[in-house]
Design goal:
This protein is α/β, with parallel strands linked by helices. It has 16 helices and 21 strands. Helix 2 (63-73) crosses helix 10 (368-387) and helix 12 packs across helix 15.
Length: 576
């Protein structure tokens, strides 16, 4: 039986217990509830620190590591790394071994290789071409007046009295409201067109991009468009100013062999005959048709209509075709969170092999700068990315492509036959020749205003205390002359940055003189060799760090960089 005192004491203990429970819950709420909000912030800050920690990996870059690979790839043992030779086998096997040794995974299933079926087309053109007008017949001389070739593998190609139509610039550009083929049937006809864009010759900055060449100004586009339109042939009127190189460069293609992708069994259209005529020959053809150079100026104006010239051409081409396979080499680091989204670094492994001996008797075109340097750069980037403690969230691909020197064919094949979908490929970062010498304050972006990757590079450069500049001759169309271009054609934002001239401590004049010396004395010559005594590679390492930072930042982001307004590739991406 409870006494009053015992009951009271139990009541008091109960009250104390309740009080302690209340106090405990109060303090738990005081501590736990804020933690519910604080912990995600802490984890977020931790995740954010992984993204913005730009220093991780930078100290890992090593000039000696880079130099070792350049020395091997550009050695005489590798015989100039020409596709379809034993030098290709040595080169791709070396790259496979190095990628595997770094711990990078095969990029094509269980293989580090992607077969690139190709055809070597050797064209032998007749030495003359007959021109027939209502009033006269005369002949043009091959090599001197024109250069012809073909992308077809037919043994004989015959051109017999094929009508010639002047089709302006041979451009169909809906975004510029321009169509030189409007209302024109060119079946069995040869179109005569101008090189570059309407804005170049007219000086009108409102036409296309003014003097900055777009893809529509490239000779490759003009041949492709003529084929799409069903033309039998396409001849481009050459001028040194508009093409950015003399007619002698075109003449190098006379009766030579050209590598091309093997498109047998595919619905790929080619014109029978493609080529160039000299500026003087172009005017001669117009004069024979009763026109003069004023007709060319009319092509610069919106609303230009193609003009049948009333003349015809006749000649023949004889073709030898050899089919074979070359190879791209590809390795990867799989992303930790978004492995299906890819960032592709590219550099071409090929060069020119054996060629005409120079004044010293050397006939091996080693291609140390072009492009053993950037191929070695791929290996160095792979080594540094693999060393990161904070692993990339997106997949990083390291793609060394074949046949760049023959027409960007390795990258073209990958873009047409991607191992990873174009729609989920975040960006392409291309390298073609690294800085052999001292670091420069500037880095040159080729293709100003094309994509947001330019802004990524700008921010990375500023973090290094450097700045970006742009190519000084955009009318030359350099953006369309390296492997990144094929990724751009597939809608993938592509960045091509190259060596600056503002050398630290020595200035722009010194850097410009170095580039001019290389272009004059060493470009595509046997003397493009590695020199361990003079190649400091400090500039190469600094530039690799920039490209590494751009790719690293992209690898942790969830957004996709975009093409900028006015880019001819923007519409392609938006359709994906």
């Amino acid at each position: 039986m409870l006494t009053l005192s015992n009951g009271y004491m139990r009541i008091k203990r109960f009250q104390v217990h309740v009080f302690l429970v209340i106090i405990k819950r109060f303090f738990l709420r005081l501590v736990i509830v804020p933690l519910i909000f604080i912990l995600p912030v802490l984890f977020s800050l931790k995740a954010q620190s992984q993204v913005i920690d730009r220093t991780e990996g930078l100290a890992t870059f090593n000039a000696d590591s880079l130099a070792k690979h350049i020395a091997v790839l550009s050695s005489d043992e590798f015989e100039g790394r020409k596709p379809f030779t034993r030098a290709e086998t040595k080169t791709i096997n070396y790259l496979q071994q190095q990628f595997a040794g770094l711990g990078l995974q095969p990029g094509n299933g269980k293989s580090y290789f992607q077969d690139v079926p190709m055809v070597n087309i050797t064209t032998t053109a007749d030495p003359e071409m007959q021109v027939k007008t209502p009033a006269q017949t005369f002949t043009l001389k091959g090599y001197d007046d024109y250069v012809l070739f073909t992308d077809k593998a037919d043994e004989t190609i015959t051109v017999t009295n094929s009508e010639v139509v002047f089709a302006g610039y041979g451009v169909v550009a809906p975004e510029h409201n321009w169509n030189d083929y409007a209302g024109l049937d060119v079946k069995d006809k040869i179109v005569l067109v101008l090189v570059n864009d309407p804005g170049f010759n007219s000086g009108d900055t409102t036409l296309f991009k003014g003097k900055t060449m777009t893809y529509y100004g490239r000779w490759t586009y003009k041949f492709e468009e003529a084929a799409r339109q069903g033309a039998k042939g396409c001849l481009i009127i050459h001028t040194t100013k508009a093409a950015s190189y003399p007619f002698a460069v075109v003449q190098n293609s006379w009766n030579s062999s050209r590598l091309h992708l093997d498109n047998r069994g595919k619905n790929v259209k080619y014109s029978d005959v493609i080529g160039w005529v000299s500026s003087a020959t172009g005017i001669r053809l117009l004069t024979a048709a009763g026109y003069d150079s004023t007709l060319l100026a009319k092509a610069d104006k919106p609303g230009f209509k193609p003009v049948p010239l009333g003349i015809s051409l006749s000649t023949n081409l004889h073709v030898t075709a050899t089919y074979n396979k070359s190879h791209n080499v590809i390795a990867k680091i799989t992303g930790t969170k978004r492995p299906g989204e890819t960032i592709i670094y590219t550099a071409h492994w090929d060069h020119l092999g054996f060629g005409k001996p120079d004044e010293t008797g050397d006939s091996i075109y080693n291609g140390a700068l072009d492009n053993a340097s950037a191929t070695a750069g791929l290996l160095e980037l792979g080594r540094v990315f693999k060393s990161l403690k904070t692993k990339p969230e997106r997949t990083i691909l390291f793609l060394s492509v074949t046949a760049e020197e023959q027409g960007l064919w390795g990258s073209a094949y990958y873009a047409q036959n991607p191992l990873y979908p174009a729609a989920t490929t975040v960006a392409n970062i291309n390298m073609d020749g690294l800085n052999r010498f001292e670091m420069t304050k500037d880095v040159v972006v080729v293709g100003a205003g094309q994509s947001e990757l330019e802004d990524y590079l700008k921010q990375a450069a500023e973090a290094q205390g450097r700045y970006i500049t742009f190519e000084t001759r955009p009318e030359a169309g350099s953006y369309f002359r390296s492997d990144h271009f094929n990724f751009a054609k597939a809608g993938i934002p592509a960045l091509y940055a190259t060596t600056g001239i503002d050398v630290v401590g020595k200035g722009k004049w010194y850097g410009q003189s170095l580039q001019e010396e290389y272009n004059i004395k060493h470009y595509h010559r046997p003397s493009d060799e590695f020199d361990a005594k003079t190649w400091t590679l400090k500039g190469a390492i600094a530039d690799l760090k920039l490209l590494f930072e751009v790719g690293k930042r992209l690898s942790f982001e969830s957004n996709m960089p975009q093409w900028k307004q006015g880019s001819e590739f923007k519409a392609i991406r938006e359709k994906q």
